[in-house]
Design goal:
Neuraminidase, 2 helices, four-stranded antiparallel β-sheet, 500 residues, mainly beta
């Protein structure tokens, strides 16, 4: 708020001064006005409407007041209200306390509430491809051309198989993987955004464990890793005790026979872990819904038991806040999808979305259009394929072949890049190369593919997108069995690419 003398009113002989008040609005933001209390009833002021949830009026006005009028309407900085319990005619009890409890999607108290666990869902997020494309183009123009960078994170023995990567709350990569030499579950915590170095830790060494790992970040901000205990045939989880995951508490979630193969973990709309996996003795697809953030226990459900199903599972949360699982129906060699009926996924509807080929490794995410996008291997032709769901429940999908250089897509992993388009990392099974496919549209009906030169062989790749908007891919160097990462130089993951 600013007060000025009116034109020609600055002389000391003038007994009458006019005060001008103006509310300045720019880009929808009120500048220079701070309000610490709001009446429960009535309007806030000339430029603002409604009550606790304030909105700016479409137009503002500028008025002149005499000094007497201004003092009558507004309390001077050196004056005191006649009745300390009254403010502009409202009793103090009519004002919300600054420590009032928050509600709805917020938790805690004002003035510093926090977003409640599970409040942010895909359905509540808005994505503007045009805006994102413009932002991405700007970043690419300003970023100098560079090559993809490859770093060895662990070379102690036969390591790096079954890797899974995500980004922690500290903005650094967190990678789970198997130490095949010792049969242990290990993690690598990146020490910077590019993951040019990392600290590694062994989380579970009881028997042969760490097979088929999958990692996500829980609602508590800590890593949650699911994996198979091959010695006992159990489904297990490790809940990190700190952001770097230097140690973890482990729990067995399902021990009813030889279970826990091909597990995949995500965090549901309720803030709890949701794990898809195979029950091999019964040839079933199962899920485990964690009972708490640490997932020290879980409720398990069988989603499909018709034939030999549940292999090569991958789980994400759809735009409707419900789990979406891709998997292989080995009996029919089909690509299938299960759409959870509720947050706990105690039941689901299933659909075969590709029955034309023998399907291999699958990976699922949700695109910028809110629909599922699945990468998988066409084992019949040795191709990399994608299926783009036609609806939220993925009762059907359109499929496309992205790579057909023989033995493509032996192991795939898909995410959504900073440009809002799908980005798939996969291994070339014939030559052992690490490759990427960058979708040219949201449906990924076509893509540009590239071999990451210098990767040194790439098996068990897992791709995520860092806080710098660039892909980070963990993988096993198939030539010397090390855990490595590739930090892409641009959204296409192509060396020295730069827009003019």
């Amino acid at each position: 708020m600013r007060t000025d003398h009116g034109p020609g009113m600055s002389g000391s002989g003038r007994s009458l001064r006019r005060w001008r008040m103006a509310a300045v609005l720019a880009a929808g933001v009120a500048v220079g006005v701070a309000m610490t209390a709001t009446p429960v009833s009535g309007h806030i002021g000339n430029s603002v409407t409604h009550l606790w949830n304030a909105h700016l009026k479409s137009k503002t006005d500028a008025r002149y007041y005499t000094k007497a009028q201004a003092n009558g309407r507004f309390l001077g900085s050196s004056e005191q209200a006649a009745d300390a319990e009254l403010l502009d005619g409202f009793d103090s009890t009519a004002f919300l306390r600054s420590d009032a409890a928050a509600g709805g999607d917020l938790t805690g108290t004002f003035p510093d509430p926090a977003i409640a666990a599970g409040a942010v869902t895909a359905a509540k997020l808005a994505f503007d491809p045009a805006t994102q494309e413009e932002l991405d183009a700007t970043l690419e123009r300003r970023r100098p051309p560079a090559a993809n960078v490859f770093t060895t994170l662990d070379s102690a023995g036969f390591v790096g198989s079954f890797s899974s990567a995500t980004i922690g709350v500290d903005g650094f990569g967190l990678i789970s993987y198997e130490d095949g030499s010792n049969g242990d579950l290990k993690v690598a915590h990146c020490e910077n955004v590019a993951c040019s170095s990392a600290t590694t830790a062994t989380l579970d060494s009881a028997g042969i464990v760490g097979v088929w790992t999958s990692v996500a970040i829980g609602a508590d901000g800590l890593g949650l890793i699911t994996y198979n205990d091959n010695t006992n045939g159990d489904l297990k989880v490790a809940h990190c005790e700190n952001v770097a995951c230097s140690s973890a508490t482990t729990s067995t979630l399902d021990s009813t026979g030889a279970v826990g193969q091909f597990p995949s973990v995500t965090v549901g709309a309720d803030g709890l872990g949701l794990i898809s996996y195979a029950d091999q003795p019964n040839l079933d697809l199962k899920v485990a819904h964690c009972d708490n953030a640490a997932c020290s226990s879980a409720t398990t459900s069988t989603l499909e038991s018709a034939g030999f199903v549940g292999e090569l599972t991958s789980v994400t949360v759809g735009a409707d806040g419900l789990g979406l699982i891709s998997y292989r129906d080995l009996g029919n060699q089909d690509l299938k999808v299960a759409h959870c009926a509720n947050v706990a996924c105690s039941s689901a509807t299933t659909a075969a979305v590709d029955t034309a080929v023998n399907v291999g490794w699958t990976s699922v995410t949700v695109g910028a259009d809110g629909l599922g996008l699945i990468s998988y291997r066409d084992a019949t032709n040795g191709d990399l394929k994608v299926a783009h769901c036609t609806n939220v429940v993925c009762s059907s999908a359109t499929t496309a072949t992205l790579g057909s250089a023989s033995a493509e897509g032996a192991v795939t992993s898909v995410t959504i890049g900073a440009d809002g388009l799908g980005l798939i990392s996969y291994s070339d099974g014939r030559n052992g190369n690490l490759r990427v496919a960058h979708c040219t549209n949201v449906a990924c009906s076509s893509a540009t593919t590239a071999t990451l030169a210098g990767a040194g062989g790439g098996f068990f790749p897992s791709v995520t997108v860092g806080v710098d908007g660039l892909a980070l891919i963990s993988y096993q160097n198939s030539f010397n069995s090390d855990l490595k990462v590739a930090h892409c130089a641009n959204t296409f993951c192509i060396d020295y690419l730069r827009r003019r």
